[in-house]
Records
---
Amino acid sequence: MTDPTNSLAQRLIRNFNDVPMQLHLRQPLYESLGARLAQGTAAVKLGASVDTVAPGKVSCPYHFHHAQEEMFIVIEGSGTLRVAGEMLPLRSGDVVFIPPGPDYAHQIINTSSQPMKYLSISTQDSPEVVEYPDSKKFMAKVATGDASAFRAIQHSSNSVDYWEGEP
């Protein structure tokens, strides 16, 4: 490929089979290999990642977004989608749509004996607030492109009065 063609391909194309994977491990429940695909591309409003969850493990804490929508495409394996207080079976080929809001708190669990691989696609709305119902905490974040401009994770019980510390 010529230099302009190669440069264009690097901004527009990622092959999830070729990206370096990063281990996310927090025993005893959480274990996955993942890679963010959209970072460094021309994408402005979309994010994408590929994740492989180990058998019997969970990808991330139960949570919901106030701004972002998500879509998950199961590529290999099977598992369970914990969503809105229900446990829904997932298998290869399933496409899951998660709108923002507290009615769609969600978590992907590999309930099988084989690895479960899925593609995550999301809007990259910013600012964003994510709530974690099990642990009663929240994350507030603001991103500018690939960089984080502000990020805070706290328990909801840490709330203070609006006028706290103001003159």
Note: Helices lie at 3-12.
---
Amino acid sequence: MQKLVFISLSFIFLLSCGSSKSKINTKKSPTKTTGTKKTSISPLALKVVDNAKSYKGTRYKYGGTTKKGMDCSGLIYTAFKEEQIVFPRISKDMATHGKWVDIKKVQKGDLLFFATKKGSRTVNHVGLVTTARTGHVEFIHSSTSKGVIISNLAEKYWYFAFVQARRVF
């Protein structure tokens, strides 16, 4: 099933991004045991998370994609780009890639999408899961007030702004 998802995603990336090369790894991923269920976390997903974490503390800058400043989608775009993965630049566009994941089944490397504008459910913010265990999900993102930080999905603001989770790897 994962190979099918991988092949589908690769095909989508190639169609939408021309002939850009991607280093997506097709080797078996290590498994992580959570209770009685085994879930596989892609080594590439772990690299993307590490890339994003390297920007922790970077100030917020609308449209930014560098250590000088970045916005939420710029952080994700850059973390993917460092692994030669072409990914959309805008959070709303990112929210259409990958496979929808139930919030109870998110894992490290999944993307979380939020609607932070009052009275709207349109995606305008994205974060990358850094920690996921039953009842506890943390994600890295770029906040307008604090820059690149790690937040907890259980925080009231993020809990109510949450729209969906997606798995790209």
Note: DSSP finds five helices and ten strands in the chain.
---
Amino acid sequence: MSGKHYIPTKESEFFEWSENLIAVSTANKTVWGLPEDKLSEIQALHVEAKALYEKCKTASYTKIDMELKREKEEQLKHLEEVFVRNNLQNNDKMTDAGRTALRIPIYDTHPTPHPKPDTIPETEVETPHPRVVRIKFRDEHAARWGKPEHVHGLECLWVIADAPPLKVKDLLHSDFATKSPLELAFEEDERGKRVYFAVRWESGTVLKGDWSEIYSAVIP
């Protein structure tokens, strides 16, 4: 899962950025009201991914080490993207000085108003790789995949469950994409399980459209 534009693509710079994100967030977790469990999860994954990165710079690394390193880095980037969006950018206690210290974007506080999206996304599921569910999306009856004009992106709620959820609020996890497709990455022990999801559009002023029906896919 590719990172946001503010996340460095060079590995050494990415880990330095990640360490800074963790350090600044941890130092200000009380002031900003940040969830300790999320910070602990990011910290643990960072340590694991960094150790694999360092190992793969030595002569003793294996092909499995390299594949696992890439997987853990992608998981870490995804986890930090979601954390930045949900806990830092959309945080009334956050300041521009805080965003600068975190090295995340400072957005326009007076964005051009956009109306509430009045359509529901159409989706198509692909399973291109093990542990990956890819959700392509487009506007209703559109010829090409992607978001409609004046829409910021697609919000997706999902959950792994044994039985179909009855309500959207039962979908416990959240992801967001500004470009089609959205990719959900899972763990090895989740393969063969069924993931349920619903999607909706979000405008540039954070107005929400209506939810789609609840769809499902088997994790490859």
Note: Helices lie at 11-27, 29-32, 36-55, 63-89, 96-102.
---
Amino acid sequence: MVLAARIALYAFAAVIGACVFSFGNVLVYRVPRGIDFVLGRSACPSCGHELAARDLVPVFSWLALRGKCRYCGSPIPARYTAVELAGAACGVVSVVVWGFAPSALVGFAFLFMLAVIALIDADTKTIPNGLVIAVAVIGLAGLVWPVADATLVDRAIGVVAVSVPLFILAVVTGGFGGGDVKLMAAVGLVLGWRLTVLAFFVGVVAGGVFAVWLLVRKRVKGSDTIAFGPFLCGGAAVAVLCGEPLIAGYLSLFGLM
């Protein structure tokens, strides 16, 4: 009976996660274009036809329609469904990591905002200030329902631990944007300085590997720039979900734990 209840709760978390990340697709499309994402009705970007409720069921509508618009037959990007599936996974993972507690909602909200920011930055190479503020608000909620083992002092240091050096690098080299700087300041408020440093390290390594791969495949030139926000967001996700074990494992290699 207990097992059945837990499975039902995990299934509920997956459904909610998919629905919330489906709304994330709306944000990713509308926010950079300045379109109202609260009152506006969803419509096919190809033909402009308003979508009915049956067209908006996460994952299942895309499968039922075989990846095409019901009204004009235009392909529906598979990325939308991939995002919804990622949302379902984040819903379940949030419950697994933080339990059936308010912290799970805070952690899920953090993962949601990281996903939205990463996708917008990948598409436009910009990180909207409003979304960074949303991450900071999540950080304030984390003071009450923490998602990381960080004191108030840790969080205060986290705000500047990465963002200030990143700002200096941005001014000196121009290799980072202002959105990256502000994002890491907000992430620091959520995670504290230890996990924020880890998030940045993971992001730099992942971004560096990706950049090298692009150069080897001749997808970009040495003078081209890539969006770094998705890698910072990925690093932050890794840090909040499994950062402490990673740090403990690293320190144990040197006999420090």
Note: Residues 2-30 form the longest helix (29 residues).
